[in-house]
Amino acid sequence: MIRILSVDNMRKSDAAAIAAGTPGRELMFRAGQRIFESVKWKPPVGILCGSGNNAGDGYVIAKLLRDAGIACDLILLSEKFSEDGAYYYNLCREAGIPSLLWNPAIDLTKYKTIADCLFGTGFRGEVRSPAREAIEAVNQSGAYVVAVDINSGLNGDSGMAELCVRSDLTVSVGDFQPGHFLNMAKDVMKEKINCDIGIEPVDRTVSLVEAADLAGLFLPRKNFSNKGTYGYTALIGGSKRYSGAIRLAGMANAAMRAGAGVVKLAVPDVLFSVVAPAVLESTVFPLSDNGEEITFSEKELAELTANVKTAAFGMGIGTGEGAAEALKWLLTHFTGRLIVDADGLTLLSRMDREKIRNAACTLILTPHLKEFSRLTGLSVTEIQHSPLPAAEACAKETGTILLLKGPATIITDGETTCLTDTGCAGMATAGSGDVLSGILAAILGYAPDPLLGTAAAAWINGKAGELAQQKYGSVSMVARDTVASIAEAIRSASVTE
Fold this sequence. Notes:
- The protein is an alpha/beta fold.
- It has 20 helices and 18 strands.
């Protein structure tokens, strides 16, 4: 897993490294050198600098470019310098590197490469002039843009921005921050890498999940095993009005493709004739209904879950009394791993928190932003601007594993938090969450650690979406295209058979 530090953690860790004996000037040089070595610079290079330590990295880069015989100009937003930045700026002046004071008349289109060293990860709020005009000019320049540390204007904790630099490459320094992945990050960074400069974190970190972290879940299966070895799973959902959700989770074989041993598709009896003809590997378990949605039957739920390790509840199930009572029964009596999604989350948001905290099962919640807003009472805007703390607080308060969907997915139990960065714009389509529920229910049937299993499902779902988008494009792909790519996504994270 790749380490991710909050902006405050990075600031404190940087200060601790300096206090321990590594001068700030040395750290600045390391940063500039690592960035210089990471980029294929095309001259002439324009280095746009603010007034803080981020600008100091730019001055180091400029000096190294000059030493390498690569033509470059410094373009200053103001003639203000940090102490260490001033040292490297003076070296640039002594080396004869041209230094310009920014004004809108400067033509950035003459540069083949532009290094963005305006703001660091600590930037918050709205971009104001003259930085605003400079960022707009960078975005319109047509140059290859390298953002140093993070794209100027982008919040390092949330990945939100009113205006920010759009980069071809972002080179973070020390460690990645959450803002390199969350919310708008994918839309403003074509590529990102990290440069280690020897700073160790002083506070708790977040982790980015990689394919190698999941290989242990997808080992070659033994001949001396059977379907029961890999878990009995129940997918509970569907209503007359919303039949597609449960069909995507189950009929489309999302669960079976993700490795479940046996999948029971529990649907209202009114859907039986719609669902059954297309079910081959799964089995159908009809539930009593009122002609539209399920009605509560303790006997049916007890029979359904008797040998089930994992259940997913809520995909298209509706929000009527029958569904509400069924969910309450599961929270009280089911002792396996229960995934609550879609309509199930709406029902959960109406329940007393004590019922959630005291659930007999391991509870996994999979909200998107609006569902999470209903669960927490926070506005969508509040969540977007503070996604990690909001997710961790909710998971800790409810005693659940929370999977908060987004361009990057947050998975947390309130103490341990990880992100998955797979996924694509084409997944912003009806049914993507239902596919995830099927994958998640399957993997949690055989994953020893439910937190890692949840992260694995998010990673696989996102990777399958990326593969589907490569084939169909972001406009034309639909959720069943993601389903069709699950096997390939799992192979990409598997130990070779």
